[in-house]
TrEMBL record:
Pfam families: AAA_lid_14, HTH_8, Response_reg, Sigma54_activat. Residues 157-386 form the Sigma-54 factor interaction domain. Keywords: ATP-binding, DNA-binding, Nucleotide-binding, Phosphoprotein, Transcription, Transcription regulation. This is Sigma-54-dependent Fis family transcriptional regulator. It comes from the Bacteria. SUPFAM superfamilies: CheY-like, Homeodomain-like, P-loop containing nucleoside triphosphate hydrolases. Residues 8-127 form the Response regulatory domain. The keyword Metal-binding does not apply.
Length: 458
């Protein structure tokens, strides 16, 4: 016996004989057939999101035979459930009505009395059409993710310092697994690049890498953006749309700026990650997904947990493996190869010959604090390439702010403490030359001395 195709078909007709024969005939070919005698009763079945093909009678009120009711229902159903293919059931010879129904969005028509072979073929064709359309939508979303993949291929990861070498080794190991990864580090330390690298090295590399900047998604759009929506679920939901999780199916999703989620967003994300299934906004049906999750943030999540700003259970879901990307000032050995890498990149971009770099310039780059880390270094090199004489890159070409590397990252938000630390740093960098210190701080010498006294400096 031929195996049944897994599909849910719905028949709506007020004639019980039609429903009975339709059910018997279609059940020979399809796994599930539901029947109702009026369109008003079909809502709960349609809302399951399972029905792919609907056979619809055109007249319901006693004596009605112009098909007007059926035409109205076609428009309504098409509007609310655009993915469902509608086949109308007409009496023999009602060709004009069939044409009008097709104009409203019906896919095909079958005539009463049933021709068994014909309805099976018609439903089978409608089913193929429904599935092809779904596949096209899926591929379009996937392609968006694959475009992001292309950008990654050309990137290289520089890791000369021992800190970055060990990060790379760990990335290689982790990429072979499906473990969730949490990337921590200041802005511009390469969290995004590391996420792409882990994906590239993983068995999922031929699939989508989907990057989502959670910092730019508003609370109202969060659910629909990540989990998708049904047409009509809210005013702007003009079409059915899959979310980022579904579009990344088989691949990797990169949730950047995870520390920016409100508590409501955190709960929704946690439920989806925990259950490994999601529900599109406005739909009842749950959908499973197979996605590897990499999250990143420059926030101190543990401090946020303590303050009740980040859910501990979500944190433990995300941080199966945790990476700390060190700031650039703590991996000085990476600076020279990175500078070379960016010089080559930008000389190519601006069609220039590769210049030499003054050794004093490299020494200055190593002393600088790099609050914006590698992104800032990249911009500094780009600027230097544009401004240089094309032969030699000098330290002035990099336009570094007059600061030196501090002992550690100033994390205080207390103004007085910030002032004290800044003064301390500037004194060190000017080797105690107070006129210079006052000048750099932009204050008079008297004010400087008053502040030195206040903060107990010698
Ligand atoms: N090890 C590296 N080798 C070469 N380029 C790097 C390296 N790390 C980072 N970069 C480059 O530095 C820039 C910033 O990196 P990236 O965007 O990955 O940082 P990020 O930590 O995700 O930043 P943010 O927190 O602001 O999102 C990118 O252009 C990236 O390609």
């Amino acid at each position: 016996m031929k195996q049944k195709e897994t599909a849910h078909i719905l028949i709506i007709d007020d004639d019980p004989d039609i429903l009975l024969t339709g059910e018997i005939v279609l059940k020979q070919r399809f796994s599930k057939v539901s029947c109702v005698d009026r369109p008003e009763k079909a809502k709960s079945i349609l809302d399951t999101g399972e029905v792919e093909v609907l056979l619809l009678d055109m007249n319901y009120s006693p004596g009605a035979n112009d098909g007007k009711e059926g035409l109205d229902w076609i428009s309504k159903i098409n509007d609310l459930y655009p993915e469902i293919k509608i086949i109308i059931i007409t009496a023999y010879g009602e060709l004009t009505l069939a044409v009008e129904a097709m104009k409203r969005g019906a896919t095909d028509f079958v005539t009463k009395p049933w021709e068994y072979e014909k309805i099976q073929v018609s439903v089978s064709n409608a089913l193929k059409l429904a599935r092809t359309e779904k596949e096209i939508i899926r591929l379009e979303s996937k392609q968006q993710g694959l475009k992001q993949n292309l950008v990654i291929k050309s990137d290289q990861v520089i890791a000369e310092s021992k800190e970055m070498k060990s990060v790379l080794q760990m990335a290689e190991k982790v990429s072979r697994t499906d473990a969730n990864v949490l990337l921590l580090g200041e802005n511009g330390t390469g969290k995004g690049l590391m996420a792409k690298l882990i994906h590239e090295l993983s068995p999922r590399s031929a699939e989508v890498f989907m990057s989502v900047d959670l910092g730019s998604i508003t609370e109202s759009l969060f659910e629909s953006e990540l989990f998708g929506h049904k047409k009509g679920a809210f005013t702007d939901a003009k079409e059915d749309r899959m979310g980022r999780f579904e579009a990344a199916d088989g691949g990797t999703i990169f949730l950047d700026e995870i520390g920016n989620l409100t508590s409501a967003m955190q709960s929704k994300l946690l439920t989806v990650i925990q259950n490994r299934e999601l529900t599109r906004v406005g739909e009842n049906k749950t959908r499973t997904f197979d996605v590897r999750i990499i999250a990143a943030t420059n926030s101190d999540l543990e401090a946020m947990i303590e303050k009740g700003e980040f859910r501990e259970d979500l944190f433990y879901r995300l941080n199966t493996i945790e990476f700390d990307l060190p700031p650039l000032r703590d991996r000085l050995a990476d600076i020279p190869p990175m500078v070379d890498f960016f010089i080559t990149k930008f000389c190519k971009k601006y069609g220039q010959n590769i210049p030499e770099i003054q050794s004093e310039a490299i020494a200055k780059l190593k002393k600088y604090r790099w609050p914006g880390n590698i992104r800032e270094l990249e911009h500094a090199v780009e600027r230097a390439i544009i401004l240089s004489d094309g032969v030699r890159l000098m330290s002035e070409d990099f336009n570094l702010k007059k600061t030196v590397k501090s002992e550690g990252f100033i994390s205080t938000t207390n103004l007085e403490e910030l002032e004290r630390l800044t003064i301390e740093r500037v004194i060190k960098s000017n080797e105690g030359n107070m006129s210079q210190v006052a000048k750099e701080l932009g204050i008079g010498r008297t004010t400087l001395y008053r502040k030195l006294e206040k903060y107990g400096f010698q």
